[in-house]
Amino acid sequence: MSGLLAPVLKLSELVNSFNDEYVSTPYEELKQMTILQRLSRYNWTFEIGGILVIAIVFALYKLGLYYNTRMTDGLFTQLNDYFKNDQQFARVGFANKDGSKLQYLDEQQKTWFTTFATGRSAVESICVRAHLYGRSNPAAMLMERLLGTFFPSMTVKDLDEYCEIVVKPNGIYVANETAKPNANVSDILNNFKFVTSVVHKSSMNEVRRDNYYLSLTRTTESAKLPVEYVYMSEMNQLNEFISHYAPNFFQVLREASSILHCISFTDLPTEKPLTEKKWNANLLPRAVIRTSIPSNKAQFKALKDVIGSVIAVYDNFTKDLVQKNPHVFITNDLLKKTSQLRSQELAKIVKTMKQVEREMALEKKHEAEKEQRRLLKQSGDAEKFDQKKRDRRERRAKNKQKVRM
Amino acid sequence: MLNPQITNLLIMLVMMQLARRVDMEDETNIMYIRTAYVASMALSWTIYQLARRAIVAKNDLTTLKYVKPGNAMKGEGESLEVTTVRDYDLQEIDTAIKGIYTGVAMMGFMHLYLKYTNPLFMQMISPIKSALEHNEVKIHLFGAKPIGDLKRPFSAPSMFGAKPEGPKTDKKSVEAAERAGQGGVKRE
């Protein structure tokens, strides 16, 4: 052990040696000196080193914050402009209490960023969340990287940089500014209960691991899709849903291949529900787009095009449903099948839940018995208790014999 | 052809015998051993890097699905892996490269800090042997076809010829795992 600590001891000796002269000065001599004389005799190397380290840490902290802010300023300004001007959202971003506009919110040392848009036909809201590295703490970032490299199972889920866009449909189709919105919203939204996605091949494992709804899908390749992507859908018939409603979808996919991880249309929860209550509480039709953080013009354009495609899917699909188009892609047959799959999945969850409850009850019973035995032992009635148990067992055995005879 | 694990064992025994005959206190010998070790590590690293370059250049995006056996130590069950041939190959080769770094760190600690030279001597040959016997190197550098033992996903070779236990690739297991709904589990 002393061998292992040798370098630390050496360093401590070196630091102490800086002030050998000051420490060896007799107390009487120090007493006679003025404060300035004492300060000048003291070797301040260690303290100056400490202050320099603190200054460097502070500078890196500020630099990290500045870098993250610069990255997200670019991203959110462009996205908010796109939502406002190109997609005609009524409200984009946030507002302060004093009424001033806020492009985005930042949290946790500028590592999480959020913006929001709402007020549009077919789309209830769009929420964009971006996660960036904690550049303000380079030491922690380095440790996380190292740990992630050598012990992947020890890393946390949100370590990478990514941008997640959640688009929620509202089931209302308005053809123009003067048109009246349709009333049968819940009926329309009932048609969004299915899971279909297009996933980039480099992210297949991660998205299946992180999203419950994708872990219920089949992975299929298609000659129509660009080679970098696969379909992940509940049923193969759903594979063409996005391309049916989004014009030039394959071209958009090709252009976004450097940033896009997945586009999913789902109503099931992201986190695996462990109870029926949680299952019901987390059913919400939405589209989820997950990408890397775009860093150049082409990638920004690709991201906007992907979001545009998803909005187009909701626009066209809602229009088909509201106008009762006989060639609507999601037929009642398909919905029946997806509903059946959901019932099966829910039954599995309920079964598991009941099994866990039974096991817990059994454990509780065992513990209560143990406690009773302990109390009886303390009071000296343990033998009586054992005798009772033996008698009961014998009686049961006799009864069984009688039945056999 | 002998099982690689058995040949490793044989090499180990031979090197142990040789190590007895070498004076590990002699500075000249130590320098030769250090040079040989560094050269061996550099060569195996280069072999892996060449294979890595070949994998990236090939960019085989064929989808690969298999059921990975669970880790009993961590209390994990079987899980489905969906990846591409390219990513699978890169993962395999990166694991091997990481192994070199870990080995170098261990040897560095033992030799430079604890002043042992024996482990350095023992580790002179096996890294190159492992690199040349690595499945990815066989496929991408020596042009072996990915069939039989080289069929992805690879199974760990068994030492005494027993049937190796590896990932399941049969349609039934893959389909069952694919729809098992194991994703989105909150990690503590």
Automatic annotation (TrEMBL), chain A:
<feature type="compositionally biased region" description="Basic residues">
    <location>
        <begin position="390"/>
        <end position="405"/>
    </location>
</feature>
<dbReference type="Pfam" id="PF07946">
    <property type="entry name" value="CCDC47"/>
</dbReference>
<keyword id="KW-1133">Transmembrane helix</keyword>
<feature type="transmembrane region" description="Helical">
    <location>
        <begin position="42"/>
        <end position="61"/>
    </location>
</feature>
<feature type="compositionally biased region" description="Basic and acidic residues">
    <location>
        <begin position="363"/>
        <end position="389"/>
    </location>
</feature>
<keyword id="KW-0472">Membrane</keyword>
<dbReference type="GO" id="GO:0005783">
    <property type="term" value="C:endoplasmic reticulum"/>
</dbReference>
<dbReference type="GO" id="GO:0016020">
    <property type="term" value="C:membrane"/>
</dbReference>
<feature type="region of interest" description="Disordered">
    <location>
        <begin position="363"/>
        <end position="405"/>
    </location>
</feature>
<keyword id="KW-0812">Transmembrane</keyword>
<protein>
    <submittedName>
        <fullName>ZYRO0D08668p</fullName>
    </submittedName>
</protein>
<dbReference type="GO" id="GO:0032469">
    <property type="term" value="P:endoplasmic reticulum calcium ion homeostasis"/>
</dbReference>
<dbReference type="GO" id="GO:0005509">
    <property type="term" value="F:calcium ion binding"/>
</dbReference>
<dbReference type="InterPro" id="IPR012879">
    <property type="entry name" value="CCDC47"/>
</dbReference>
UniProtKB/TrEMBL annotation, chain B:
<feature type="compositionally biased region" description="Basic and acidic residues">
    <location>
        <begin position="165"/>
        <end position="178"/>
    </location>
</feature>
<dbReference type="GO" id="GO:0016020">
    <property type="term" value="C:membrane"/>
</dbReference>
<protein>
    <recommendedName>
        <fullName>Inorganic phosphate transport protein PHO88</fullName>
    </recommendedName>
</protein>
<feature type="signal peptide">
    <location>
        <begin position="1"/>
        <end position="24"/>
    </location>
</feature>
<dbReference type="InterPro" id="IPR012098">
    <property type="entry name" value="SND3_fun"/>
</dbReference>
<dbReference type="GO" id="GO:0005783">
    <property type="term" value="C:endoplasmic reticulum"/>
</dbReference>
<dbReference type="GO" id="GO:0005739">
    <property type="term" value="C:mitochondrion"/>
</dbReference>
<feature type="region of interest" description="Disordered">
    <location>
        <begin position="155"/>
        <end position="188"/>
    </location>
</feature>
<dbReference type="GO" id="GO:0051604">
    <property type="term" value="P:protein maturation"/>
</dbReference>
<dbReference type="Pfam" id="PF10032">
    <property type="entry name" value="Pho88"/>
</dbReference>
<keyword id="KW-0732">Signal</keyword>
<dbReference type="GO" id="GO:0045047">
    <property type="term" value="P:protein targeting to ER"/>
</dbReference>
